[in-house]
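*** Residues and shapes ***
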Amino acid sequence: MSITTLLNAGAQRDVKPATITARQLAAFRAFARERGELLDHDDEDPLVACSFEARVRPWSLASICALFDHDEGVIAVVEEAQFRRLNVRFDRDDATRSISLRVGSTPDGSDQQSRAARGLGIAST
């Protein structure tokens, strides 16, 4: 049986979201998909499916940040997500047409655990 629990110790996420380009998003999606770590919208167009979460803990900070031209905002977000053992979240603001990268609220690997549970026929709640 698999139980996923979210704990919030009241810690504030004071890392500001980083703004990224569509090319950087596409590069990250290709990088994550190649390594089997893209959690949502695996088959959709990266410019359409701009709201998803992905793991960053399996890779080095340098390899991820190279995809984003070593942007300081991206480094801060990825470093914080890795430190807190959380996923990162990509979101697109339709009003400004900008894409942001922020620390997610989903614990790292929780989606893989629930996928494994479903594969074993275990219902997760």
